[in-house]
Amino acid sequence: MKNEKKAIVAAGLVIGVISALLVFFGNPVNMGFCIACFLRDTAGALGFHSAPVVQYIRPEIIGLVLGACIMAMVSGEFKARGGSAPVTRFILAVFAMIGCLMFLGCPFRMILRLAGGDGNAIFGFVGFALGIFAGVFFLKRGYTLKRSYKMPALEGQLFPVLQIVFLILLVAAPAFIHFSTEGPGSLHASVWIALAAGLIVGGLAQKTRLCMVGGIRDAVLFREWKLLMGFVAIFASALAMNLILGAVTGTPFFNPGFAGQPVAHTDGLWNALGMFLAGFGCVLLGGCPLRQLVLSGEGNTDSAVTVIGLMVGAAVAHNFGLASSGEGPTSNGKIAVIIGIVVVTVIAFMNSRKKSD
Question: Which entry of 50, 130, 220, 291 is 20 to 30 Å from 282 by CA?
Fold first, then answer.
């Protein structure tokens, strides 16, 4: 157990350093990694939405899935499984993504925004934690989406193979793939640096089971802090690297405050409510977006369906004006988040054994 904790902390320290370096090499500020943002960008590149500033096949996502897949195969942990309420998982994922895009970031980016000095992420963190508490409330009342089943190996291999197809499309850049020329989608590290970063982080996350949702959930349910320690380590090393890079380059990688933060808004209430929805939904899904990518690399088709749901949620958010911007949340986005909280609550209740409690 002690060695496991050390491994998780060490992995977190490495991941935090890599996250800061990705910004140094070209990623948007405070966005070394953002699973929600990167899936949104990839969805845009494939034409699922037409927001011109967020369209780019992100190699980090490809690397995360393939890194987890390689590590799982090497360690004998690759197992094709699925069939646990796929439609419910899809719907939960759509609304979790809508919550993330209200906040403008996933739990991973929330930590990196804090490490970059973005005070708005504090509201997101509070909402995220409360959303996890809401999910734990239903877990204690027997919430479950039932068991998954063993599937043919090919079924688990298809999603990792799809990532290779995405990599080919990224490198070949055919005319039907969209690439942003301005905005966050135009800011990125080189393909091979980003891919290498994703492979390393995917492998580390698979080996250590890193999950922000799981970290807080386990701390509440079992008083087990090891997963949460990994994200504390990510925060600490990303913060340290931001300070070092700022001192070396003269560019403020750490910029404390609320106003003028990159790809962020200052509406504290809706930052909190967006991440409340994301946290609540992810507990019911069994893991944060990062964890879902890792599980999909291990052959879990339920997680692959979840990732597809996240991408569809991103497309819905941009096609219907639900996603926030630096100017703040939209009216449509606020309505969607409230609807999402209601839908997720109903799903949690209907899948709990102790409905009468």
Answer: 50
